[in-house]
Every structure is written in structure tokens, then in C-alpha cells.
Amino acid sequence: MRCTESSRDNIFNPDEWAGIVESLVIIARESYDALGMVPRIEDYYSEEEKYTIFAIRIPSGLDGSTVKYSEIVVVSTAAPLNQGFFKELASEIAPRSFFRYRHYYEELFSRTVFVLARSYRGFVKAIKSRNQSFIPVLGKDACARLFLYLADFYRNRLDALVDSVLDGWKKRSVDHILWRLYRLLKNLDSLRHGASRLSLFNANLYYINILEIKIGKIEGRVSSNIIKTCNALLRVFKKMLKIIDRFLEPIIMRKVGEVCYKLLKERFGRFVFKAIKLAEEYANHVRKLAASLEAEKFLERISRAEPVKG
Question: pTM score, two decimals?
């Protein structure tokens, strides 16, 4: 597997690119495990004239003897992205085959292509053609947004599958609650509860618990393959939330720093950097004191312990 940056069209540094590839591999392994399959990571990497492309296929469900796969494709380009260039990329990538599928035993369920660019011009609209979706991912937090799109897709697919069994199929508007939570976390104006509590995974625990209860209710009413598919989608969804939190953490911490600096600037004026230095020294002192007290408590417990009789 290649995840180094040697192409001028890859807008990510090696660590960011490796982070995306590694996260997709983790998701694939999670899905294989949930479906009771032996992990077989299959990926594709190529440096084209105008872009760098990485693709991976992930099992996303079982239908009798057929394994249905979702292909995740990441395209990185240094060229400015506009609607015309985006359509050109979509028409070029759409007919390509990145993996071989064995007739009857394997089937392509969907392909999601994420196009990440250094800059864009005008409004760039997503394109959907049959079972393929082409999505522009723009902004400084592109890594987190990529997995946010994926998590949203898996969440809505899981909702539709479980509810179709419980209530019968019914068309409804797509709920993008993940995006609302993400924007809330990313664009905080005040931090009343501390950064440690800000987590997309924690914010969705109630929803996850409801889904687990729903899956439990349909167990026994449907085939084991449907249950495996539901559990695989849910496990991948949870794993994606944790991955998003990992990408989101530096964004939140940067926001925390901006808020703290603003508050300190208002309070201390031109002495703000001196105040920050003193606060850091005080925090180090408190940590050392806490460690010392813990050591004293441990030694005290040892001194009071009775010897073990043989």
C-alpha cells in the first residue's frame, strides 16, 4: 500500500494523506470483522497527470451468497476546483474499474468519490449518477469533512434499512443532524463545559443506543445476513465518529486557544503573553504537586499493609 506524497497534485502532507488512508483501512477491517469475514484489504493508488487517486473497497452488506461492496475513492488535486473541472473529473473517473468483482459472489453497491482541492472557484455542486456520488470536499478541515460525509451516508443507510423492517418502507427527508453537531463543535463561541466533553461520538450515544435496541427488536424476524449488515453498518458508523473526533481535536483545541487568548487579552492587555507564561508555570506546578501527593498516598497505603502470611 502506498501512502507517501510524491505527486505535486497531492495537496496533503505525508502525515495527512497517511491519516486518511490508515483511517479507511481501519474502517474496512471493522466491516470485515462485523460481517464475520476474513479481512482482505484491497486498494488502488495512482498518480495521474492532474490528480492523485486512492481507492479502497469495503464490504457493506450480505445478500444471500453475495457480498455487497462500497468503494471509497479519494481524489486530491492542486488545480483550482470549479464546476467545469469537477464535471470533467467525474466523467473521467465514473467509467473506471478499480477492482474486479466475481459474478454472483461480489457486487458493487455504491461508489463515493471525494474530490479534495487546494482552492475552489464559485459554487461546486455534488454530482450523483446511478450508484456513484461525486462530492467536493473543501475547507481547511477537509479530512474531518470527508469522514463526516461518509458517516452521514452510513447513518442514513442504516436508518432506512432498520426502519424498513420495523415500520415498512417509507420515504422521508434526509436528516443531516451530524452536520449540525459538527458545526456546533467547530464554531464554538464559548466553552462552558471544557474541551474534553466536546465529542461527536458522545453527542451520538443516545442515537446509537436507540439503533442497538431497534436492531435487537428485528433480530429473529429477518435473516441473519440482514442482522450482520445492520451491525456492520453500525460498527462502521461508530468507528467513523471516533475518527472524526480525532481529526476534529486539533480544530477544537485551536478554537479553545483563540477563545482563551481573547479572554486573556481583554483582561491583561499588553501583558497577555506574560500571563500565559505564568499560567503555564502554575499548571506545571499543580501537576507536580498532584503527582507528589499521589505518591505519598501510595507509600502510606504500603506502610499500613499487613505482611502476607505464608
Answer: 0.72
